[in-house]
Amino acid sequence: GDSVTQTEGLVTLSEGASLTVNCSYETTQYPALFWYVQYPGEGPQLLLRASKANEKGSSRGFEATYEKETTSFHLQKASVQESDSAVYYCALSDTVAETTAGAEHKL
Asked: Which of 7, 19, 23, 67 is the most exposed place for a label (fewest CB within 10 A)?
């Protein structure tokens, strides 16, 4: 089945340091890829997404490039701030599939 793998657990960085959170995926489809962020005391919210090979998603100084060849979508930020303290989740979604009834989106 489809899956994503994040290799990091807790990451502690000094302010101004660079951040990389690795995400690899396995899928039989051609998925859209997402990073979500969850700040303390809040629910998860979408940080960035990409839906095609070599597309770069970016938001709030974070970026991730859809690497179809290496099946990766690593989250990066050049200089982290204390306000970036949060839990980060990588996720994927199947592409929209054509059906006789129209378009159907599978999560």
From this structure: 7
- Residues sharing a CB contact under 8 Å with residue 14, sequence separation 6 or more, in sequence order: none
The 3-state secondary structure of 63-85 reads: EEECECCCCECCEEECCCCHHHC
Residue 24 CA to residue 6 CA, distance in Å, equals 7
Sequence letter at residue 98: E
Enclosing domain of residue 41: 3-104
We report the CATH number of the domain holding residue 73 as 2.60.40.10
| Residues in contact with 101: Cβ distance below 8 Å, sequence separation at least 6, in sequence order | none
